[in-house]
Structure formats: C-alpha cells, structure tokens
C-alpha cells in the first residue's frame, strides 16, 4: 500500500479554491447524481440517498488515505459553494504519470471553475509532485471537456476505439496529455 496522502487546499485563479471533500458536500453529490452523464462515468450514486452520498464522500477520503490519489472539491471563493470535483489519480505514479478526471454539476457550469481547477492541478502535479506526464480520457462528443483540456495546455494524442464501457455501451475515448516539458 502507498503512503497516505494529505489533500491540500489550492487556490484556483481568483474565484475558486480546491479543497478536500467534507460531509457538508452532500448537496453537491445530490446535484451530480441528478445529471444524466456524471453518474455514468464516476462513482456518484444514482439514485441519490444521503447514505449513499456519505459513502461516496468517505470513499474520496479513502482514496487519499490509501495513496491512490488526490480528490478535490472545486468551490467558489465568494460563497464557498462547491460546484464540482477534480481528481489526480496516481496508479502509475511510479512511472511518472497520473490520470486527471473532473466534473462540474450543472449549476456550476460556464463559470470557469473547471478550467481554473484543471490549470491549478496540472501545474501543482507537474511542478510540485514532479510528475512527467498527466493524461485524461474524454468522449469525442464532449466539446466542453475538450475545450477545458485544450485551454489548460493538454494535447490530443488520439482516439481509443471502444476503450471504455459507459452506460452499458463500449465508447470511444480521446486521449489528452500534458508533459512536464510542454
């Protein structure tokens, strides 16, 4: 088992902060569970229940405690309202690479939260954690996620045909990456 990790609080631009998950984030889990897509690509519970949401938050804590990764909540600075999540997953950290994943609940979209969070996590992972490569998978139709990745300096590497099962169907995924020397 890897060493336990401490999820830091990071400033993401002027309007957002990244912080560890809290049990007070259950309303964010509820919003995400009501989305048609987020529960298909994450472990967000659907249908929602307070019990299942608490299990989800505790699972985020366990990710850090077992050294699997850094799960962050994206929260607005002005009112501390959580709007989404971003994670850095370290399964391949020994090889100098990690996976990034993110989602934003509908009420938090189109505010720049995800882009600010991705730029912050990317800089932190490449410079502070000294990882050589970060990558993510995005469905080809997901224009918002593609724009977010590209705005943070990620480059499209190619199409992975039939890569992942989502909603019971094998889906193509685009591979995006960012290197420490980009």
TrEMBL record:
Keywords from the named record: Transferase
UniProt cross-references to InterPro entries, sorted A to Z: Acyl_CoA_acyltransferase, GNAT_dom, Ribosomal_N-acetyltransferase
Coiled coil, from the record: none
Residues in N-acetyltransferase domain copies: 16-180
Keyword Lipid metabolism: no
Any one GO molecular function term: protein-N-terminal-alanine acetyltransferase activity
Keyword Nucleotide-binding listed: no
A cellular-component GO term for this protein: cytoplasm
PANTHER family tied to this protein: ACETYLTRANSFERASE, RIBOSOMAL-PROTEIN-SERINE ACETYLTRANSFERASE
Protein name, UniProt field: N-acetyltransferase
Species of origin: Streptomyces nitrosporeus
